[in-house]
From TrEMBL:
Key word Acyltransferase present: no
Entry keyword set: Kinase, Membrane, Phosphoprotein, Transferase, Transmembrane, Transmembrane helix
Catalysed reactions, semicolon-separated: ATP + protein L-histidine = ADP + protein N-phospho-L-histidine
Transmembrane segments: 7-28, 63-84, 96-121, 133-154, 166-186, 198-215, 236-257, 263-280
Gene behind this protein: prsK
Stored PANTHER family: HYBRID SIGNAL TRANSDUCTION HISTIDINE KINASE C, TWO-COMPONENT HISTIDINE KINASE
Organism whose genome encodes this protein: Aurantiacibacter sediminis
Leader sequence residues: none
Record-listed E.C. numbers: 2.7.13.3
Identification of the protein by name: histidine kinase
InterPro entries: GAF-like_dom_sf, HATPase_C_sf, HATPase_dom, His_kinase_dom, Sig_transdc_His_kin-like_C, XrtA/PrsK
Gene3D superfamilies: 3.30.450.40, Histidine kinase-like ATPase, C-terminal domain
Length: 702
């Protein structure tokens, strides 16, 4: 009986200490806790918790426990004084402070009695006298504190009483218990052991009253723990009960008193530890605890906030280490039902579904035609989440065999099929493996899995659209290259056609024949270079930039058009630029050819090259028909829009892209009936080097 009672008292002190710590920490950290005495209450609870822990570990007569008890009384007194601040009576009632100071002085005398008791521990008469002083001081403290509590509550306003009644009741109950305890101790000339053993219950009651007053709002009094808190708390409770059982049984074996008592005690401890390690590491037990708590403690099975956050975190995981989206989709569904693994089946081009991704399920054998087209049609029309255990038990009679093929039924780990529907179209099915604690899916599971399935279907459909768009872009890039090649061939064909027409008129002239040979040689070079440039389009940034003289490029272009159309170099400054010479020449040929085609015979096309403020400025000027502002704004630099019959509409676009690739800029000014001026600005070689160095420095800093 004595051992059991000691164990009960020990647990009572621990319970009082833990509850005081919990409430004190909540008061210290929660912003909803407001009031002038919050800090004092939190400190008092913390000190009392320390005293309770000390008594449980060291005993009530230990010096450290006595010091903490005196500090606890001072903390309660400070809390009481701060409670007067609820209606500012601490400022108007001057007698309060002297009374509180006197009571604090009386309690401080305990710190003088503690060393005296240690010094005269071997003198029973002196020890009795010291105890009598201690009991007297505590009686004075209890009486004075109760008087202050009466004045606190009786003199408070009606509104203040609503906030003060529970703290006053907590302090009143605690000090009434101590008043009786020290009165009996004083009269009996000894400590009443039964009341001392019951004192943690008085502290626990005070903590409960304080907590009830803080959460007096009816809505706040509802117990609403999170699922993780409930699971961890229940786990700790089981562990605590297990440890208590171990202690009781071990102590009972120790009291056997035989020669085999210590052997039995050791064997029991080893067996209990082995059982504990086995049970704690069991996934099935953890799953059972989670399911049991969710079913009995909460209104809903799922914590939808945490489930959605986990789902978003799983799907949104990025980086080279992250698994691909299909695997993350399987994991996102499996985490909801605690399934250890799963598969994703997606549509095949031939119809039906095939395996697209595995998540932690390498051992299952999936046929190439995992689900037939008839099964796909069933899930699309019914949007049914299939529990395979119901099908195995024969409880689902309306499921066609195509919706659940033989390989699924035969695999005992196959548990549920979750369709992923996007605009009533099936984009996949997630097959979930059996969780550690198998349960029957209910309406809440179906609702959540259906919503998650639709969300996942949108992600998978978006990825499919992006893949299709990327493929279309690759085809578009190929078509664009062919269009550019056709445009270059068209320019060469125009030059050769013009040469053939002029040959009929001027073939006998030696100067024309020389120009004709030069033009043919240039056309041949262009055709050969065109073959080398087929892989260049769309990859301008990959070629090394070289330094060259821009004026020489203009001279060569003007030479090409000799005998075809007058192209005049009005000013040709020396300008060294850095870039792709062939690409720039190709861009200039596009622009000059457009100017030639827009100009009438006998109207020159003017080229003007100037070096200005670190840039080479090149102007291509014609006196042709010009362009409207609307055409320049909306169509000039758009591919496949042309103002010329039979034109491809990509010359200006390609020229601008080639110039931009060299760090330049292309502007256009035009007036209908007056002509057009293209202005090209390219950084000179020194400026380009400086810009490149600055960009490299920024990248290194970043």
């Amino acid at each position: 009986m004595g051992v059991a009672w000691d164990l009960v008292i020990y647990l009572a002190y621990l319970a009082a200490a833990i509850s005081a710590v919990a409430l004190g920490l909540w008061l210290a950290t929660n912003q909803r806790a407001q009031g002038p005495a919050i800090a004092a209450t939190s400190a008092a609870l913390g000190i009392n918790a320390g005293w309770a822990f000390s008594v449980a570990g060291l005993g009530a007569d230990a010096v450290f426990s006595q010091i903490l008890l005196a500090m606890a009384y001072l903390a309660w007194l400070w809390m009481l004084y701060r409670l007067f601040s609820h209606d500012d009576r601490d400022k108007s009632l001057a007698p309060i402070r002297p009374v509180v100071a006197a009571l604090a002085f009386v309690e401080l005398l305990q710190f003088a009695l503690i060393p005296a008791a240690l010094q005269y521990a071997d003198h029973p008469g002196a020890q009795l006298l010291i105890n009598q002083f201690s009991f007297t001081f505590r009686l004075l403290l209890c009486i004075g504190t109760l008087v202050l509590l009466h004045n606190l509550y009786a003199g408070a306003s009606q509104q203040a009483r609503l906030a003060l009644r529970w703290p006053a009741a907590a302090l009143g109950g605690l000090f009434l218990f101590d008043l009786n305890f020290y009165a009996i101790a004083y009269l009996g000339e000894g400590t009443p052991q039964l009341l001392r053993d019951l004192r943690p219950l008085a502290l626990l009651l005070a903590v409960l009253l304080l907590a009830f007053g803080l959460f007096r709002n009816k809505e706040e009094l509802r117990f609403r723990p999170s699922r993780s808190f409930a699971f961890q708390s229940f786990s700790l409770l089981l562990i605590g009960a297990y440890l208590v059982a171990m202690i009781v049984v071990a102590q009972g074996l120790a009291y056997v008193g035989s020669d085999y008592g210590r052997l039995l005690q050791t064997g029991f401890l080893l067996l209990a530890c082995a059982i504990a390690l086995t049970v704690i590491s069991s996934k099935r037990l953890r799953a059972w605890v989670r399911v049991t708590l969710s079913k009995n403690l909460f209104q809903h099975r799922y914590d939808y906030r945490s489930e959605w956050l986990r789902f978003t975190n799983t799907i949104g995981r990025a980086g080279p280490q992250a698994p691909p989206l299909p695997e993350r989709a399987v994991q996102a569904v499996a985490d909801i039902t605690d399934s250890p693994s799963g598969l994703l089946l997606t549509p095949r081009e031939e119809g039906g579904l095939a395996l697209a991704a595995r998540w932690q399920w390498p051992q299952i054998d999936v046929p190439g035609d995992a689900l037939s087209q008839a099964g796909v049609r069933f899930f699309e029309e019914s949007q049914f989440i299939l529990d395979l255990d119901d099908l195995r038990r024969g409880e689902e009679q309306n499921i066609p065999s195509a919706a659940c093929p033989k390989w699924l039924i035969e695999d005992a780990n196959s548990w549920a099929l979750v369709p992923l529907l996007h605009y009533e179209r099936l984009v996949g099915i997630v097959l979930l493996a059996r969780p550690p604690h198998t349960r029957r899916l209910d309406w809440e599971d179906f609702d959540l899995l259906r919503v998650v399935g639709r969300q996942l279907a949108s992600y998978l459909a978006e990825q499919g659209s992006q893949d299709a768009l990327g493929e279309a872009q690759r085809f578009d890039e190929f078509n664009r290259r062919i269009a550019f090649v056709m445009h270059d061939i068209k320019n060469l064909a125009s030059q050769l056609s013009l040469l053939a027409r002029n040959a009929e008129k001027h073939a006998e002239k030696p100067e024309f024949r020389a120009d004709m040979i030069l033009t043919l040689r240039n056309s041949t070079d262009k055709l050969q270079a065109l073959l080398a440039r087929l892989g260049r389009y769309g990859n301008q940034g990959g070629k090394e930039h070289d330094e060259f003289a821009l004026e020489h490029v203009l001279e060569r272009i003007a030479q090409q058009y000799r005998g075809q159309h007058e192209v005049t170099l009005q000013q040709n400054d020396q300008c060294a630029v850095r870039g792709d010479r062939e690409a720039l020449e190709q861009a200039l040929v596009h622009l000059v050819q457009n100017a030639v085609e827009a100009s009438e015979n006998g109207t020159p096309v003017i080229l003007d090259l100037r070096a200005e403020a670190g840039n080479a400025q090149l102007e291509i000027i014609d006196s042709g028909s010009g362009m409207s502002p609307e055409f320049i704004r909306t169509r000039l630099f758009k591919p496949f829009h042309s103002s010329k019959p039979g034109g491809f509409g990509i010359g200006a676009f390609e020229a601008r892209e080639l110039i931009r690739a060299m760090g330049g800029r292309l502007d256009v000014e035009s007036r209908e009936g007056l002509g057009t001026r293209f202005v090209i600005r390219l950084p000179l070689s020194g400026t380009a080097d400086m810009i490149q160095a600055m960009q490299s420095h920024k990248k290194e800093v970043a």
